[in-house]
Structure formats: C-alpha cells, structure tokens
Amino acid sequence: MKERLKKIKDNKGITLAVLIITIIVLIILASITLVMFTGDGLIERAGEAAESTDAAEGSEQLQREYLESVGKDKYGDVDLDKFVEYLEDKGYPTEKDKETGKPKVEVDGKIYDVDIDENDNLETDYEGRGKVTGPRIRQITVVEKTNSSIGITVKASRMEGGTYYYFIANTLEELENAEDSLESADGNSKEAKYTYKNLTPGKYYIKVVAVNEEGKMDSKTIEENMYKLAVSEYPKNWVKEDVTLTVTAEMGELDSKPYSFNGGKDWQEGNTATYSKKTEGIEIWVKNALGEILKYDEIINLYIDKIAPRVTLTAESPKTNSITVNVKTEEDADMESGISPDATYKYYIKKNEKSEETSYTEPPIEVQGTSYKFEGLEQNTKYDIKV
User: Is the pLDDT of residue 272 over 70?
Assistant: First the structure.
C-alpha cells in the first residue's frame, strides 16, 4: 500500500514539472514571435498595406469618374472646375484647399487632392481619412439682365445656416481689392439669389463668397457684359394720338428677329411698335445672335384715347342778369380715359351778333365742376355759350 502511494506522489511530481517546463517554453516562443512582428514592423507594415490598398481603391474610383466625365457632352472639354462640378453632381463632397486653392474630394471617408496636368491626365494625392465640411459654390447663373441690372442665382453645397457675400467691379484688380460686399444674405443648402442694380454699359466681374457655419469659405467669379438698351420718349399721361415706341440696342450681332414688345411672346424684325389705344404692361426685350436676352427695366403703360365724350348743355331759366349752365357728359363705350372727377371745364360766352368780329371771351372761365353761373349780363340780349 505504501509503495502504491509513493508511486502516485512520484507521478504527480513529474506532471507538475512537465507543466512548468511547457509554460516556460510557450512564453519564450510567444516572446520571440512578438519581437519578430514588432521589431520588424510587420504589424505596422500590414496596416500601411491595408491603408495603401484602401487609398488606391479611392484613386481608381476617381480615375473612372474622370474618364466618364470626359465623355459627357454636358461638360464638353473637361477642365478641373468642370470635373469638380461633375463630382458634386455625382454626390462627392468637394472643397478648396486654403493654401493652394486646389480642390479636395472626399471618397468614402478618404480625402484626395486632385488636379489635371498639362496632358489632361488626372492626378490624385491621398491625404488621409477625413470628412469634407467646407462649402462649394457649384454654379453662378445669370437669370435676368436688364439695361441697368444683372440678376444671378448661386448654387452651393454644404451652406446650411451660412452667409453669401456679393461683389462687383469693372476690373479683376478692383474686384480683388474690394473690401465691402454690396450685401450679404443668409444662405441655404441649395440656392441663393441676388440682383446687382444701377449698372451702366460695360464689362463687369462678379464675385460671390460663401461662408458656412464652421467659418469655411469658397468663392467663384464670373465675367458679364452690360449692354446698352434705350427706348424713345413716350407720354406718361393721356394723349389722343398714336404713340410709336422705338428701341435702340447695342449688344453685338442681333438675332434675325431680335425685338419683342410683349415679354418674349412674339418676336419681330423691326425695332418699332405703334399703339393706337390704351395699352398697359408693355415689356421690351432684345435678343442677340448668341441667344442672350436683354430686358428694358421699365414696364411701359400707354394711355391713348382718341374718342371724345359727348357733351349736352342745359340752361336754367335766365334771371335778371344771369344764366346758369349745366353740363352733362355721356361717355362712349369705346372711350378709354373717362372723365376725371376733378376735370377742369372751360366756359365761354359771347353775344349772339351777326358781326364776325364778335368772339368768345378769352381767357375762358375754368371751373372744376359741371355747372357755372354767368353774371352781369345785359337784359334782352342773346348769348352764345360754349363749354
């Protein structure tokens, strides 16, 4: 029995020793393996390889987009600005680098600097992981141009709660030195509108600066020509003759039918239009060969009435030396102007004599009323009265 217990104890001792030796060997092997990975930078190199592969995928994706954009008729010959506009249309956030002014593009959480070389090849430089949060002015469009104003629409991305600033000058140098904008307006995520007013004919450079809530900004400049458009003098009050409007425009070669007097509904070759009755809401537009439309900045209203009112005179029973005359006017259905409540009536009187030298009193008696009493008249005398 003692010998059996002794064997069990001996076996237990051997088992513990083997276990300890095994653990020590495993620790040594683990240490060697760790040194191999960390000392030789295998972990770092593995991470770098994964990052490089990830970056290459984004670069290849941009190259594919570039090749596709080149073939788009919408953009024609692709340059950097047009390619960035294309990327924004496809949903890639972009912004300008503060120092270089070159665009940055976000592709699946990775930031790339992009450029186009002299051979029209796309160059991409992986910057690292990040997110584009700066605004991007995608487009400035002239939506309306008159002889004294330019109206624009600004489309931008990532401008929630931001502010737009508008500048204009005749030269780029003046534009760069401009310190104060004409006006600022709260922006939104898609569109802003502004009209530059009191302009004279000539070349203008228009600049818009967009600043978002984070203080990041973007700017875009376009060039526009202001043309000359003039309309002949026309009466502002009622007249009883035809009125002819003559348009003079200087905006390069004109279209074959460049003139419209009804806001672009109808176009004609001649630069004149004649009106013979009351006409309101005359909108004059001129179109050149490039399709640009210039609008006259006034809506013209012409007040023409060639039909006179019918007048009836009645006299009250003559007094000792006076006669009261009452006037009644009947408006013709085709008469445009009507009789104003404060119209002035001119009353004339003369003795009813056969002598041609007898004439009506001058100047006439002017009264704002439809009744007048002539006094100081001679008894037993006939009088002619005219109103």
Answer: yes
What is the DSSP code (8-state) at residue 334? Answer: T
Share of residues in the chain with pLDDT > 70 (%): 83
Written as one string, the DSSP assignment of 144-173 is EEBSS-EEEEEEEES-TT-EEEEEEESSHH
Amino acid, single-letter form, for residue 311: V
Mean pLDDT, rounded, of the chain: 83
CA distance 282 to 64: 53
- 195 forms beta bridges with 151
**Encoding tokens for residue 75?**
């953009």
Q: What is the pLDDT of residues 157-204, one digit of tens each?
A: 888 778 899 999 999 999 988 777 777 776 665 788 999 999 999 999
Tell me the residue type at 119: N
Confidence (pLDDT) at 10: 54
How many residues make up the chain in this entry?
387
Predicted structure pTM score: 0.64
List residues bridging with 327 in a β-sheet: 313
Residue 275: per-residue pLDDT = 97
Phi-psi region of 338 (alpha: psi -120 to 50; beta: other; left: phi over 0): left
- Residue 166 near residue 187 (C-beta atoms within 8 A): no
Residues in contact with 145: Cβ distance below 8 Å, sequence separation at least 6, in sequence order: 151, 224, 226, 227, 292, 293, 294, 295
Residue 358 dihedral angles phi and psi, to the nearest 5°: -75, 130
- 314-352 burial string, b = 16+ CB within 10 Å, else e? eeeeeeeeebebebebeeeeebebeeeeeeebebebeee
